[in-house]
Write a structure and sequence with these properties.
432 residues, alpha/beta, Rossmann fold, Aspartate Aminotransferase, domain 1, eight-stranded mixed beta sheet, 13% strand, globular
């Protein structure tokens, strides 16, 4: 049987896809007043739950594909795959998997193959294998692609890139995209870190936003749909493309994940809990090159710092001396007996999520020469794709530990505030 064998019978019984007048992005069910605020306080519900409560009215009569992963669950913890599959109102005919696959059991940076899903019998098309952008053949048998991916609010996390590439393919192939919105676990007010230079756009930087962007995946989709030049597709396709966002209800920009009442489902093997979510933007960039390690493989991924050749006391003295606002460093031992410095957030209000990483880079220069200046082209390019700032790279490689970090932090803070102000036109949720 071909990999498309499970879809063909559906295609035979469904009416041919009819041309539907194309329209710009719509945000379904967003009842707001003139100030952009909810008309009435409503209980918190995810986009998938809003879709279900509306009896799947945007999917009825259509052949539906679903792009999701293990964290794509409803408010009761039921996977969106099952939510759609169990509904007699939805004709789910294909699944699409991002990095780590639809069940989250694939390793990072490892290509995933197409397959037939053992649980549902549906074809699963990998968007992290031979192709990262759906091919016309992958979309040929669907009318609508539903996207339910949980992001972590950080530019280099690849699920929003997967969403953008899928959007481009849908717009080019007359397939509607429906994004089921989810919370940004870091909230909608914290924006921080360097912006992304256009030359470094890649799968770990698909949007020109600060490293911590403060948007939901639905708002990022809206920004991509409405911003000229944001997609690698023709402007005609972008304008005519059909995007519908199903917003959450009851979510405010000031809400962190713990205020939603939801349980965290691991979004990838190295992000098993909320501690790792917060640690990812704090130390991920700082441990990419240089001598720091940030706890991958321990009980505290992205929160557990070590440096070869340095004692915990030496490490703590050096980090404390940097006077990084809002954080402290606590000697700790994990369940396997490994020792490290746990990064604790003491003051969320003044905390800048990415600042620590850049101090880590300067300490690496202080303790081991300048590993950045000595880096070969491949690692250097990957580093810059993550960090995003060519100006930082130039300064770091030339000046090492003497780089004017405070000057960069001030610049990035001003740029982040400017971005946040400009991004308000894409906000779906205005309440703080």
């Amino acid at each position: 049987m071909s990999k498309r064998g499970k879809v063909q019978p559906v295609r035979q019984v469904m009416a041919r896809r009819r041309f539907i007048p194309l329209f710009t992005c719509s945000v379904a069910g967003a009842a707001v007043n003139a100030n952009g605020e909810d008309k009435a306080k409503r209980p918190f519900r995810l986009g998938v739950d809003v879709l279900s409560a509306g009896k799947f009215k945007y999917l009825t009569g259509k052949r539906v594909g679903l792009l999701t992963h293990p964290a794509g669950v409803n408010g009761h913890g039921l996977s969106t795959v099952e939510v759609l599959r169990r509904s007699p109102l939805v004709n789910l005919v294909a699944l699409y998997g991002p990095e780590h696959g639809i069940y989250g059991d694939e390793k990072a940076n490892v290509p995933v193959l197409d397959r037939v899903d053992r649980r549902t019998g549906l074809p699963v098309y990998s968007l992290y294998g031979k192709y990262r952008k759906p091919t016309p053949e992958m979309l040929a048998n669907i009318d609508t692609l539903v996207v339910d991916l949980q992001d972590v609010g950080v530019r280099s996390y690849t699920y929003v890139s997967c969403m953008r590439y899928a959007m481009e393919a849908c717009f080019e192939n007359n397939v509607e995209m429906v994004v089921l919105d989810r919370p940004n676990p870091l909230g909608g007010l914290k924006v921080d870190g360097p912006p992304l230079d256009r030359k470094f756009m890649s799968y770990v930087g698909a949007f020109q936003v600060p490293y911590v962007h403060g948007l939901t995946i639905g708002e990022l989709a809206r920004m991509a749909k409405e911003t000229p030049g944001s997609l690698k597709t023709s402007e005609s396709a972008r304008k005519k493309g059909r995007l519908r966002i199903i917003p959450m209800t009851g979510w405010k920009r000031s809400m962190l994940w713990t205020q939603t009442g939801l349980r965290w489902k691991p979004t990838s093997p190295y992000i098993p809990d909320l501690s790792a979510v917060l640690g990812y933007p704090m130390t991920g960039l700082g441990a990419q090159m240089g001598g720091f390690r940030h706890g991958i493989g321990t009980d505290y991924p992205f929160r557990f710092l070590t440096f070869k050749g340095k004692t915990l006391q030496e490490l703590k003295v050096a980090l404390d001396a940097r006077r990084i606002r809002g954080v402290s460093f606590l000697p700790k031992r994990d369940s396997k007996g490994k020792e490290g410095l746990y990064v604790k957030v003491d003051n969320w209000a003044v905390f800048r999520p990415t600042e620590l990483s850049f101090h880590m880079m300067l300490l690496s220069c202080s303790w081991m020469g300048n590993p950045f200046a000595e880096a070969s082209n491949g690692p250097a390019l990957l580093f810059n794709k993550h960090v995003g700032s060519e100006a930082w790279w130039e300064a770091l490689t030339k000046k090492g530990q003497n780089t004017d970090l405070q000057g960069f932090l001030g610049l990035w803070n001003r740029q982040a505030k400017s971005f946040q102000q400009g991004s308000r036109k894409y906000w779906i949720y205005h309440q703080v």
